[in-house]
Amino acid sequence: MWSSARAFLRKCSTVIVATSIVLWLLLNLPLHTAAQMQAAGVDTTNATAVSAYTVDHSYAAGLGRAVAPVFDPLGFDWRINVGVLSAQAARETFVATLGQVASAEDPEQPAQTLQTMTYPDGPRAGQPVFTAPTIAALLVYFVYALQCMATVAVLRRETGTWRWPAIAFTYLTVLAWLMAYLARTVTVLLGG
For the whole prediction, is pTM greater than 0.90? Predict the structure, then answer.
């Protein structure tokens, strides 16, 4: 039993570390020259401004914005979307993702940055990201979503086909979205 548990922990920790490294790369690429940042109005002598610009114009931000139409009804912005996508590998990476994004905006107080995070643009520009309805939707989404590729791999190994893991992943993702939307709606109706 100990051998199986140790193998599982080694496999999961490897997935989490690998996902965190890939996520860091996606949040820091492509590289931007000082001239590009200055043309965008970024003070290149301010490390925090450079870091925030880099994250906001990264491949991860582009991916988070690309899936925004799917998650907008849940109240998620691109930063939460990136966290949700990274959590497909392992749920624990959601926290690492938001930590990396918040640290880019304020490396001294990332927790404060998360608490005061606002939508940067769009119809909700300037409004807080983490409201009661959005938090309810996020928590409920994580209750239902199949966000562990190790579990998907075990399903594949046990069933001998990709059919059942695909069905489980699709079904649970759709269920997670629907239940998160319901949770958000109920929270809004209750005055949250």
Answer: no
